[in-house]
Every structure is written in C-alpha cells, then in structure tokens.
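Suppose a colleague, Dr. K., hands you the sequence of a protein chain of 401 amino acids and asks what its three-dimensional shape might be. Before reaching for any lab equipment, you can write down a predicted structure in token form. Begin with the sequence itself:
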Amino acid sequence: MSALNAVAKGAAAVGAHLVRDVSLPALVLHRDALEHNIRWMQDFVGNSGAELAPHGKTSMMPALFQRQLAAGAWGITLANAVQTRAAYAGGVRRVLMANQLVGAPNMALIAELQDPQFDFHCMVDHPDNVADLGLFFAARGLRLNVMIEYGVVGGRCGCRSEQQVRELAAAIKAQSALALTGIEGYEGVIHGEHAISGIRDFAASLVRLAVDLQDNGAFDLAKPIVTASGSAWYDLIAESFEQQNAAGRFLSVLRPGSYVAHDHGIYKDAQCCVLDRRNDLDEGLRPAMEVWAHVQSLPEPGFAVIALGKRDVAYDAGLPVPLKRYRAGIVPAEGDDVSACQVTAVMDQHAFMTVAPQVELRIGDIISFGTSHPCLTFDKWQVGCLVDDELRVIESLQTCF
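The predicted structure, expressed as tokens, is then:
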C-alpha cells in the first residue's frame, strides 16, 4: 500500500478558484488590499520622517517580508531567535528582535549567523542578561548589537525607570562583546482613559533618555536607533518622535505589524481612532485577511454549524465575523451579504452561527469570515491563499512559525 502524500493545511494550486477548487477551511489574503496596506503604511511612516521595521511575527510569511522590504521597509522586527533564523533563511538581512536574547541555545542560533551583511539588534533590560550575553559572545570572539528596552510599571518587559536605563547602559559599556545601538519601548501596554497623554509622555521619556545616553557617550552608533510603536498607536509615536526631532539626531523606527493584513475587529477600531486623530488621512487600511469555510450542518431553524474553529481562526479578541455567502462551485462567484448573521461560539473545529431570517443557507455553502487580531489567525496555518479580485489563487504564501 502506498503512503498518501501529506497535504499542507490551506494549500491550493495557483489558478485554483476559491469556491470551486480549494479545500476549505482556508486562510485567504486579498492581493489588492494587501498591496494597499503595504504602500499605505510605508508612505505614512516615510512622511513622518521615520523608518519602518514591521513586526514579522504577525504573519511569519517570508514572502510578505520581501514585499514589505521591496516597498521600502528598513528591516523586519521579530520576537525570538527561531523567528530570526526563519526570516534570515527567507532573505531578511536586518532584524530588530524585540525581546531579550535569553538562553545559550538561543544565543547560539544568532551566533551562527556570521553573514557580515546581517544587521541584528536584540533588546536587553537587566544586568543579568547583559552579563550572560557578554560572556557568551566574548567566548566566541563576536560582538552583539543590543538596545536597551524601556518599559512601564505594570507593563511587559523593559527597565522600569530612567535610572535603571542609565545603570544598564553602564553595564553594557563594561562588556567588550556588546555594542549599544539604541533604545526601544512598547506603548501598547498603556491603557485607560488617559492613554493618549500617557503614550505621549512615554515617547517623550524615551527620546529624553536617548539624548541623555548620547550626550554621555553611551552609544556605539553615531546615529542611534530610537524605536517604538505597535499597530494601534503608531500615529502618536510618529508624531512624538517627529515633534522632538528624534529623526534629526536619531534613527526613528516604527514597528507596527498587523497593518499588513489589518482586520475586522480590534485593529479596525484602532484605525478608526487614527483617522479621527489625523484629519490629513483621507483613507485608511483595508482588511486583507479572511478565513473561508463551509456550512457543515443546519440542525435547527436559524442555527448553522460552520466547519471553522479555534484551530483555524483567532478568538481571543472577538469571534469571527460573517461577511459573505457563496454557492460552492458556482463561477463567477457572487457573494451575498450575510453580515446580519452572528458567530456566538467556537469549538476546536466548529463555529456556532445564528442565521438571520432573510438568509437562506444550504449544506456546503461557503461563508467568508473576517477576523480580529490577525497574529493569532496566521499562526494556525501552514499556507495562505493570495487571491485576485476574481477569487483565483495567484500565490501560495507559506508561514514558518
């Protein structure tokens, strides 16, 4: 008996049509929206006097990294050593690793990348990590670029005070195998009714620390890197950096990631806030990601079970949003609006959906769903289908989580 060939989840042949030829569920990326988002953010950041290093952990799709770099991105931000290796294998040659490099095996993964063209920077926020990195890389005759991470009380990683930053800079200076190349922060953990003023204060503190460190000769770059920004408040960070002339004395780098796919949930809401704050922006990002799935069962009136679940789509920041219904196998495909339907719960492989009175479904119908928080949808797929406006697959985009 011959073994069956393994089929990657979400794989589809180029030229296949979503409603006729593709095994569902499938991760779908719409080319026009994707390309619009890449251009839009690159233009926004460039017009703000900054550089863009999009957070690649969102998609972990090297093909998207290359599109972002080709559009002008300065580099790619990643979360850990394994992701960095995957990006390097995909042709990325400048990486900000927005975490401390912890553990000898992870340090070894980076040390093995001996390409002189590879520009790598990781974060440090504690003297213990500085000592460990200094010892590890000195033993191998290597020098590692590090950036101090500055955080907020009750937030995520990072030094909790300006004094801790200054002390850490001194500890780095004592390590011959480490080069201090900048300072980094993440404002996405600042919440509450005074979030906007808090974010502006945080950005000002970040730049003030950079000035202080530079004045005291702490940096090993003539133009050190100052970087922050997630996908919700990037406009405020860009504005703060620009107002403080950070781009003149420093290399300002913004790091949003989810913009590339955008969504129908938390980032859609965040983008509306950006447009409210910025009257000069007449158009925003477009949702480029959907997950497509079949109607699996219609066991009761007004109730459908969809062949889509927690293993296929994010559910941490809102449930999937029904968008359109397509008749399976019918090409050209015309989608009917089913936004009046609602997903009420998801299980491992099933979604429960209330069916609006005006919507008539049959078993095998195809529903396209919008998502919220694209990072945790991408990581459930080996392959995504890039489609044109006729819903034909034009490229299979592999992930490398």
